[in-house]
Write a structure and sequence with these properties.
It contains seven helices and eight strands, in the order βββααβαααβαβββα. By secondary structure, the protein is an alpha+beta fold.
C-alpha cells in the first residue's frame, strides 16, 4: 500500500536570490557568497551569534532552513520525530581547501571544525532541537529518487513525522541550496512528495499541485 506524503514548504538559494515556495523573498545581486549570506541573515532579522563563526556551507544550509521553516508548524512534533537528510557533491571540500592553506602557516582550529559536511546538519539540529534521523550523503548530482525512497521509508515506518531533506553544496563561488519540508499532513496547496516533483523544484521547472 502506497502512503502519500507531502512537500509542505521548499526553499531555494542560488545565484544571489532566496526563494520560498517559488517566490523570491530576498536578493543581493553581484555580492560574493560571504557578503550575500551575511546580507540575507541581516535581511531576515535573524539572531544567532554562532552564525558568524560558521563556514559557508553551514551558513548556507542554516539560512535555507530558517527560511524553509518560517511560518511552519514544525514545533508541533516531538524533537525525536523530526529528521534531516541532506546531500551534496563536494562534502566539506570548500572548508577543507581553506584549512589546508592555513596549515602552511598556522593551522586554523576554526576551519578544522568544519572539515566534515555533517557539521552543517549538526548546526541545524542544534538550532532547532531536532533529535530524529540526521544523515548526510554524497552524490555527483542531486538524486531525487534516493531522497524519495529514503525519506518515504522514515515517514511510512513512523520513524519520523516530518523531515527536512534536499541539497546544500558550496565550492568556491559556486553554491546552491534546495530544501524541502516533507510531512504526512496535507497543506493548503499540497504537493505530492515524489521524485518528479523534487527534481522539478530543484531544476526550477513547473510542478503539479493537487
Amino acid at each position: 500500500m502506497n502512503i502519500n506524503h507531502y512537500i509542505t514548504s521548499y526553499c531555494t538559494i542560488s545565484q544571489e536570490v532566496v526563494y520560498k515556495n517559488e517566490v523570491p523573498v530576498f536578493e543581493n545581486r553581484g555580492a560574493d557568497l560571504p557578503a550575500f549570506l551575511l546580507s540575507a541573515y541581516q535581511h531576515f532579522e535573524l539572531n544567532y551569534p554562532k552564525f558568524y563563526k560558521m563556514d559557508n556551507l553551514s551558513k548556507l544550509g542554516w539560512l535555507a532552513t530558517e527560511v524553509l521553516l518560517k511560518g511552519s508548524t514544525i514545533k508541533q512534533y516531538q524533537p525525536e520525530t523530526v529528521g534531516l537528510v541532506l546531500t551534496n557533491a563536494n562534502a566539506s571540500l570548500d572548508s577543507d581547501k581553506k584549512y589546508m592553506k592555513s596549515v602552511a602557516d598556522i593551522p586554523s582550529p576554526a576551519l578544522f571544525v568544519y572539515t566534515l559536511p555533517n557539521i552543517m546538519t549538526g548546526e541545524i539540529c542544534i538550532r532547532n532541537n531536532f533529535k530524529g534521523e540526521d544523515a548526510f550523503f554524497i552524490f555527483e548530482k542531486f538524486d531525487a529518487a534516493f531522497i524519495e525512497l529514503y525519506v518515504n521509508n522514515l515517514l511510512s515506518n513512523n520513524i519520523l513525522n516530518a523531515c527536512i531533506c534536499g541539497w546544500v553544496d558550496v565550492l568556491g563561488d559556486d553554491y546552491k541550496a534546495v530544501l524541502f519540508l516533507v510531512e504526512k499532513v496535507v497543506s493548503d496547496k499540497p504537493i505530492l512528495f515524489t521524485r518528479d516533483n523534487l527534481a522539478n523544484i530543484f531544476d526550477n521547472l513547473v510542478i503539479d499541485k493537487l
